[in-house]
Amino acid sequence: MTAAAAENRDITAIARWIAGLAHPGSVPVVGINGAQGTGKTTLAGRLREALAGRYGLCAVVLSLDDLYLPRAERERLAAQVHPLLRTRGVPGTHDVALAGTILRQLRGLDAAGGPVRIPKFVKAADDRAPASGWTEIAVPVDLVLFEGWCVGTPPQAEAQLRAPVNELEALEDADGRWRRYVNDQLAGAYARLFALVDRLLFLRAPDFASILRWRTRQEAQNVAEAAAGAAPGGAAIGGMDAAQLRRFVQHYERLTRHALEVLPRRADLTVELGPQHEMLALRYR
Predict the structure, then answer these.
(1) Rounded CA gap, 39 and 277, in Å?
(2) Fold held by 3-284
(3) What angle (nearest 5°) sits at the alpha carbon of residue 98, between those of residues 96 and 100?
């Protein structure tokens, strides 16, 4: 069996598992967690197509990336809490209240009074798109696929926060203020948001080195697509050089390593990935 055929087989199996969650009168939310470069967005898109084509189910994909706080809000956090909160991505830099409202509306728990409106974040501008550019979703829907790098990740214990995990934390968060703020967000508002997730799928990379390698490859692809005009809203054409990308990824390293350790025991389905990004096994809990 070719690698492509094996992947199609696994996508079909995952879609079958998700389709089994759908029942009239309820709208299950399936969280998809995976580190940078693991392919969350691609998987969510393929699952949406499979659910529609094979089962006639309407699945909406909601990306945590589209729920970043506007740049002005992150600048305020950087000034009032910690400069590292200027960089989007970690818990505390998303519009959690809006995310919860959208999920409740899609599930029919809140009356939307019309289509559900989902924001769009423009990464090239590092800011939220104007409301006129938001996506409108006609309800009702059958399923929600909620994808994001920290979806379903629990907070760390206090003892785990004491020592820095990388150069960024050692030099720019020596007193631990930033990582404790992030962890407090994960324990509070994000935990309440993730409680709306009914099932969790975890894309498990083999190690952090693979994640950095995949994210480097993804950055090169983003730059090429942006230069060709094929990725509006993607990375700026200039992209990040190796040093910039390494620093950027260090913002996520702590919780990425934490997820690799704890989520295989918590996720309802863990997809084991190999070093070449191939799906090695599906492990159901």
Answers:
(1) 9
(2) Rossmann fold (3.40.50)
(3) 70
pLDDT digits (tens, 9 = 90+) for 97-116: 999 999 999 998 665 567 89
| Residues 63, 60: Cα–Cα separation, whole Å | 10
CB 139 within 8 A of CB 105: yes
Q: Which of these, 34, 30, 26, 16, lies nearest to 198 by C-alpha position?
A: 30
- 147 and 30 Cβ atoms separated by less than 8 Å: no
Q: Are 197 and 29 in contact (CB under 8 A)?
A: yes
Angle CA 175–176–177, to nearest 5: 95
Cβ atoms of residues 29 and 107 within 8 Å: yes
**Residues 124/235, Cβ–Cβ less than 8 Å:** yes
Distance CA 211, CA 277 (A): 10
Name residues of the chain where pLDDT drops below 70: 109-113, 222, 225-226, 229-238
Q: Can you tell me the distance from the alpha carbon of 180 to that of 156, in angstroms, rounded to the nearest whole number?
A: 9
Distance CA 254, CA 156 (A): 10
CA distance 235 to 23: 39
For residue 141 the two structure tokens come to 């829907």
> For residue 123, which amino acid is it?
K
Q: What are residue 53's DSSP bridge partners?
A: none
Question: Domain extents for the chain?
Answer: 3-284
Average pLDDT, the chain: 92
**d(C-alpha 276, C-alpha 285), whole Å:** 25
CA pair distance 63, 120, nearest whole angstrom: 9
Span 113-132, pLDDT tens digits: 678 999 999 998 999 999 99
Residue 116 corresponds to which tokens in the numbers above? Answer: 């559900």
Contact 99, 208 (CB under 8 A): no
